[in-house]
Amino acid sequence: MAFIDGQLVDDHFYYGRPWRIGLKRFWSRLARHEMYCYFRPLYPDAPFLDDLPPEAIPDNLRDPEQTLQIRAIRIVPVFRTHVAF
Q1: What residues have CB less than 8 Å from 34, skipping those under 6 apart?
Q2: pLDDT digits (tens, 9 = 90+) for 23-38
Q3: Sheet strands side by side (includes 2-4)
Q4: What is the pTM of this model?
Q5: By C-alpha distance, which of 36, 42, 53, 45 is closest to 1?
Q6: Cα 19 from Cα 13, distance rounded (Å)
């Protein structure tokens, strides 16, 4: 879950894909406040895991000795333009 100034602004229910947050909509708030991310544990008996393909199951659920790994955080600017002819 992502919070700005104590308010939940985005969340991500795990389904095997990276969590992508569009920050532009929070630009004015991020100028005044930090964004905090909170990660809840994912347990091997979570019922929705049966709906995921095997390759989407996180490694830490196969090996209880592993813990959460955040492999990368990237901020990537996205530019768009419209061309009319």
Answers
A1: 4
A2: 889 999 999 999 999 9
A3: 7-10, 2-4, 35-37
A4: 0.66
A5: 36
A6: 9
